[in-house]
Write a structure and sequence with these properties.
The chain is an alpha/beta fold. It is built from 17 helices and twelve strands. It has helices at 10-16, 43-50, 65-77, 89-98, 115-127, 141-146, 170-179, 192-195, 241-244, 255-259, 264-277, 283-293, 296-315, 334-340, 356-366, 396-401, 418-432; strands at 82-86, 106-110, 131-135, 152-158, 184-187, 205-209, 223-227, 320-324, 348-353, 371-372, 382-384, 408-412. Strand 2, helix 5 (115-127) and strand 3 form a beta-alpha-beta unit.
Amino acid sequence: MTHVPFPHGFATQQVHAGSGPDPATGARITPVHLTAGFVFDDFEQARARFAGEDDGYVYTRTGNPTTAALETRLATLEGGTDALVVGTGQAAITVALLGILGAGDHVVAAGDLYEGSRGLLLDNFGRLGISVDFVPDTGDPAAWEARVRPNTRAFFAESIANPKAVVLDVPTVAAVAHRHGIPLVVDNTFATPYLLRPLEHGADVVVHSASKFLAGHGAALGGAVVTGPTTREAFDWSGFGHLTAPAGVLGGISWVERFGPRRAYVEHTRAVVASRLGPTISPFNAFLVQQGLETLSLRVARQSATALELARWLQARPEVASVDHAGLASHASHDVAARLLPRGSGAVFSFTLEGGRPAAQRFVDAVRLFTRMTHVGDVRSLVIHPASTTHAHRSEGERLAAGIWPGLVRLSIGLEEPEDLLADLLPALAAAVPAPTPAGV
């Protein structure tokens, strides 16, 4: 399904796009359609829907009105024409990439990916015969160029990397990819479409963990794939054999023939990859994500502003060795953030304590208002120690090479008053690096 652009500002889009009064009841809020399947009027309607001649619903695994409303809103907010919603962010990445890749293909990926994405590429995709090379310095276009092979089929990176907050120079990396006829897939979870719309800067596919900022309240799991930029011509998928070969489900014609070179990918990904692998989102979770989207800009604007305030405060503290926040002039991607993220550099960042892992442990155990939890994008502020949790399965050498120091702590900033968060951080820092015992005592 192609979504028509919704010609209003972001805050209006996040409230209205993809929804309206229910035609049957007049209910203003999108109903939750908790049904496995949908009734056919007659034999012919059933045949037509399975043949793709009738766009009506068949089974919630392949489509649901509640999910469709969310897909329209997400496509609008990201500046895309098509969206596909699935059960989790990890499912979104898997589905998006498997819609492109097959055995023998190669991916060039950012070296600072979330550990779950890195493991997916190395382990799960590796078993399928898909290889990957990681770019250690994502800001260097020559590093991306040097890793391209004849069988490279995708570039993959995060708009704001986890946990070091490196901002991807989307236009630059997209230019390298497009010179080789390769699509750029961007995980936009940390930035959200409020801070950055990668499709407008050259990305071809955007993925989200909708469980994070989009839902916003830590209550629902979901993922999304968005394609088809409305501000420029979409990527031409006619160079991909699985989209140009005759398809049995289409009666022997190809996806490119049926849907054109710009939409073949998303239609194949929806009908073949997502439908058959089955990472279906619950309609109730789709409803919760849509509810969260209605306040996205309000939450992210406040969270980003508070995060920058705390980052500046932490940078001045003697207990802190360094702070990784792109809003700080000291950050390696500060200039990229200033160019691409005028509304803010996000609400997730990390800092490194002088006392190493023992200091990090004391700090994490000392906070009271921050929640110790492996999640981000919540209305509540969260804290975690990556080296012993999210990045624990890397070797020490790999962690150090990625800048995951023993004393590094990640914060996800919520909606609490900044003064209250500072009041929680101050004694935790004191506990992290105790004052030295005076001589002679």
